[in-house]
Every structure is written in C-alpha cells, then in structure tokens.
Amino acid sequence: FAMVLIALLMAGGPAVGEADPAVMAMLREWSLTSPSPSRLVVCHGFGCIFRTEIGFGGGDHARMAAIMASGSASAQAERAAIGRTEAWFEQRIAPITGTAKRVARAGPLAGVGAGKRDQFDCIDTTVNTNSLLLILYQLKLLRHHAIAAPAFRFLFTEGPHNTAVIKDRKTNELWTVDPWTHKGSEVPDIWPLAKWKAGG
C-alpha cells in the first residue's frame, strides 16, 4: 500500500477545486468515484476491501456547517473544527459501516488483521478523510485550507503509514489530519507535517 501511495503522489490528473491532483488519483486507484455532498463511499476492512455507500442530506450538511462555523475566525480554529467534524463523521457513519468499536492504530502491531470489516487501516482513513474534506470544500466550508496530497511515513515502531493533509492557504504550511491513531469518533491528530513525519 505504501508503494501504491508513493506512485499516486507522483501521478497527475484533474484537480477538484483546491484539491491536489494526487487526491483524485488516489480515488481512481481504488476505483472510487469522487464524493459529493449527497453521497460518498466509505472504505473499511483494510485497503478498502469493504465499501459502504453513505447518503448525506440537509441535516448532515447543517451539522457540518455548524461545526465548521466555529472555526471560521482563523486557520488554527478551522483546523480544530475539521477535527471535530471528522469525529462527528465517524459517529455518523459507524452504525451503517459497523465501525463504532474500531481501535486505534489497527494493524498487525495492534493485533488486528486485514479483512475485519469493523476496522480501518490507514488506507481506509486516508481515503475517507479526503472524501470528507472534498465534501467540506464542495459545501464551501473550508475557508482557510486547501486539500493537499496525502503523506507517507515509515517508523520502525509502526511500519508504513499514510494520512490526509491540508494546506494553510495563507502560509502554505502543511498539516496532517490523521484519525488512524485514535479510536473511532475521537478527534484526529492534526499536526504540522514535519511533526507527523517524525511520529509526534
């Protein structure tokens, strides 16, 4: 999976709004259509083995707008709001995907093997978080950030790992949005890319 993502980061393709082309290339690599405010496909079970379509309606849009409005004042506030929206998103999809009890850092080191439809590996969380970010962009709820190319790291204590990334529009600083390191419905790590690369 790590090599696939590295190849995708080198790939070109049409951007959606302010999404890096590598995000769209990643979706194509996993044979996923671009999400819309009315629907998205959630990956789970490791490497997008299981795919569950989720429909969003006006109530979902209102909830996302309310959370994101709390972050409108600054880039820092918006990052915090993105984290809260990610936590809400996991709560929203869990009854449908069966992922309410997913564990942090799911994978061999956590004693969780592939094919568990109630778990996310980092491929699943990277795809799902980017899908959520694309929906936030389409709903015009991202004021201070654009969607950057996913990031990759390798730590001996963890192995290969991927995550979604956002870019501060004013400073161009890159920030990771990483829910894989937390249990379901918890706020993800939103760190400067260099800190994330180093493992925090």
Q: How would you sum up this structure, described in words?
A:
The structure is a single chain. It is globular, with a radius of gyration of 15 Å. A 4-stranded antiparallel beta sheet has the order 3-4-5-6. Strands 1-2 form a two-stranded antiparallel sheet. With 200 residues, the protein is of the alpha+beta class. A hairpin with a 3-residue loop joins strand 3 and strand 4 (159-168). The chain has helices at residues 2-9, 21-29, 58-69, 75-97, 122-138, 193-197; strands spanning 39-44, 50-55, 145-155, 159-168, 174-178, 189-192.
Strand-helix topology:
Layout: H1 2-9, H2 21-29, E1 39-44, E2 50-55, H3 58-69, H4 75-97, H5 122-138, E3 145-155, E4 159-168, E5 174-178, E6 189-192, H6 193-197
Antiparallel strand pairs: 1-2, 3-4, 4-5, 5-6
Summarize the structure.
The protein is α+β, with helices and mostly antiparallel strands and 200 residues long. The chain is built from six helices and six strands.
Question: Which features would summarize this protein structure in a list?
Answer:
single chain, 200 residues, alpha+beta, two-stranded antiparallel ribbon, 6 strands
**Rg, alpha carbons:** 15 Å
Q: Which parts are unreliable, with pLDDT below 50 for 5 consecutive residues or more?
A: 1-15
The largest sheet, given as strand count, sense and whether it forms a barrel, is: 4 strands, antiparallel
Distance between the termini: 22 Å
Helical coverage, percent range: 25-40%
Backbone shape: globular
Strand order across the biggest sheet?
3-4-5-6
Mean pLDDT across the residues is: 91
Please tally the helical runs, counting DSSP H or I stretches of 4 or more residues: 6
Structural class: alpha+beta
Instruction: Please report the total strand number as a whole number.
Output: 6
